[in-house]
Amino acid sequence: MSAAPVAERARESESVWSRAWSFVRRHVLTVYAWLAFVYLMLPIAIVIAFSFNDPAGRYNYTWSGFTWDNWRNWDGVPGLRSAMVLSLEIALIASIVATALGTLIALALARYAFRGRGATNLLIFLPLSTPEIVLGASLLTLFLNLNVVFGFTTILIAHIMFCISFAVVTVKARLIGFDRHLEEAAMDLGANEWVTFRKVTLPLIAPAILAALLLCFAISIDDFVVTYFNSGPETTFPLFVWGAARIGAPPQVNVIGSAIFIVAVVGMVANVLFQMRRERSAATA
Amino acid sequence: MGFLHRNRGLSPYLLLAPGLLYLALFFLVPLGFLAYQSLQSGTFDVGYAFDWAWGNYWDAIRNYRGHFIRSLQYAGIATLLALLLGYPLAYWIAFRGGRWKNLLLLFIVAPFFVTYLIRTLAWETILADQGPVVGFLRDIGVLGSDGRVLATSTAVVAGITYNFFPFMALPLYVSLEQIDQRLIEAAQDLYASKWKAFVRVTLPLSLPGVVAGTLLTFIPAAGDFINAQLLGSPRTHMIGNVIQSKFLELTDYPAAASMSFVLMAAILLMVAIYARVVGTEKLTG
Question: Are A137 and B247 in contact (CB under 8 A)?
């Protein structure tokens, strides 16, 4: 009389297990993906959490209490504000100049058949595939041998250099998937080349130019290695972090790091959502 | 207006000139100076003089062979780890991400929005001796009661893997995302199992992404010195640490310059071997 329910229960538990197993099999990749996201986010969570830490001693490594003070007092550490200002100035100028130069190269590569194309592509590709330490070291030897005084200018020269290739690649990608007929139509309707460029080409590649600007800005403001070799007495934000790390980085470093992260993520999410909405309205139209 | 038409052959060069001139001046010429410096001899106090001092190269290889080998090993292992971790994730986003793909990609790029040095310092916090990771590993007996993760080669490789992970995952995603789903369906219609369809269709089609991701990860990883500096110990120092200290602390420019070129040559050699292997695999597969 007890055999039937036992068998029933056994079958039930077996089906629970097999169902669980098939669930795992079906979702193993999804589970893995979310674990990978946790792995990617973990250090970022630590950075943000420790920006609210109230460290007992000099080291901001162990959690010892919540406080808003670091955010209120973000420039309470000597040198931090000027480092941040320098980083922003360099990133702004470098991204504008590099994007301008890079856009022109991209236009030439996407529009014209010309002699020296292969060499041009190589010259764009090489800086991208050279380790940063070699880029930094070679500029350092140039400036040393020419007795150039290290400072703002040398940092700026370096940043524009390693940003150009990124700008070219970004803008070129957009130009290649671009309908030439639109420009031909404008010319057929009597627009000259300059007007066509201003009224047709430029608006169409504007998103790519903006993307290149943002990419260059992000790369520049984050650069440590090349800047370290060519900064002389100047201190950018990453250099400040490097110096501070040797004696124990203050929580204000985490505040700036978190702030940069939050601004970037909000911008990216807004951009993605905007694109999704535009795609959906384009699909319904 | 007629100007552009008449000189049509000239306009690509006009577009290219400013950017390429800049790259020539601040990328190629500095490399020349680095080569020039690498063949000099003397001391910093007396001054360096050019005399075809090829001995610098032999000294670099002889005295720092261990550092070169370690750099290539760490970079190789980290690249492999990033590939193994990144492929399933990129696959999941590309094939299961649906309309949230672009938003999910943000998780991959997110680490880039936190300054490189700050996210490395966050790993220092996570892997600290009194931190949860080390505590757990000690409890389950993987580490001895006074075992450490920081200052070991494991920590350095883990840091490199994390820091360059997006360089691997993004190209993987791009190549997987471009695959025409119908090809995979066709394979399955022709009685290929899911696994077989993956091995024979998806994997070969994603190979360009694998190659691009591998190169984009390996090259900067081999020249890195930040992870070895912040997460490692002098025993885990890579060639980047030596180049950096010879340039900026010891001012032994010729030695540092020759090491930079040996590093570039070593990387090129590895890339060439890799291209060979991937190429033949593609032919036989």
Answer: yes
Residue with tokens 């593609």: B282
A51 and A70 in contact (C-beta within 8 Å)? yes
Spell out which residues of chain B touch residue A112, defining contact as CB-CB under 8 Å: 11-12, 15
Q: Any bridge partners for residue B42, and if so which?
A: B48
pLDDT tens across B6-61, in order?
445 788 899 999 999 999 999 999 999 999 999 999 888 888 989 898 999 999 99
Q: Which of residues 116-155 of A touch B (CB under 8 A)?
A: 120, 123-124, 126-127, 129-135, 137-142, 144-145
Residue from A70, A141, A225 whose CB has the most chain B CBs within 10 Å, to mutate: A141
Contacts of A197 (CB under 8 A, 6+ apart): none
Q: How far apart are CA B70 and CA B266, in angstroms?
A: 12
Q: What is the pLDDT of residue A14?
A: 67
Question: Which residue in B4, B21, B117 has the most chain A C-beta atoms within 10 A of its own C-beta, making it the best mutation to test that interface?
Answer: B117
Contact call for B37 and A272, based on CB within 8 A: no
pTM of the model: 0.88
d(C-alpha B29, C-alpha A99), whole Å: 22
What residues of chain B, 35 to 94, have a C-beta less than 8 Å from chain A?
Answer: 36-37, 85, 88-89, 91-93
Q: Does B228 touch chain A (CB under 8 A)?
A: no
Residues of A in contact with B176 (CB under 8 A): none
A229 touches chain B (CB under 8 A): yes
Contact list in A for residue B15 (CB cut-off 8 A) is 104-105, 107-108, 112
SS3 content of chain A, % helix, strand, coil (to 5): 80, 0, 20
Q: Is the pLDDT of residue B283 over 60?
A: no
- The whole-angstrom distance between A46's CA and the closest CA on chain B is 6
Give me the residue label for tokens 């060519």: A230
The pLDDT > 70 percentage for chain B reads: 95
| Alpha carbon separation from A17 to A6, A12, A21, A24, B127 (Å, rounded) | 16, 9, 6, 10, 37
Residue B235: pLDDT over 70: yes
Using one digit for the tens of pLDDT, what is the confidence trace for A88-132? 999 999 999 999 999 999 999 988 888 888 899 999 999 998 999
Residue A233, classed as helix, strand or coil, is coil
> Quick one: pLDDT at residue B8?
59
Distance CA A130, CA A127 (A): 5
Residues of chain A with pLDDT under 70: 1-14, 58, 285
3-state secondary structure chain B: CHHHHHCCCCHHHHHHHHHHHHHHHHHHHHHHHHHHHHCEEEECCCEEEECCCCHHHHHHHHHHHHHHHHHHHHHHHHHHHHHHHHHHHHHHHHHHCHHHHHHHHHHHHHHHHCCHHHHHHHHHHHCCCCCHHHHHHHHCCCCCCCCCCCCCHHHHHHHHHHHHHHHHHHHHHHHHHCCCHHHHHHHHHCCCCHHHHHHHHHHHHCHHHHHHHHHHHHHHHHCCCHHHHHHCCHHHCCHHHHHHHHHHCCCCHHHHHHHHHHHHHHHHHHHHHHHHHHHHHHHHC
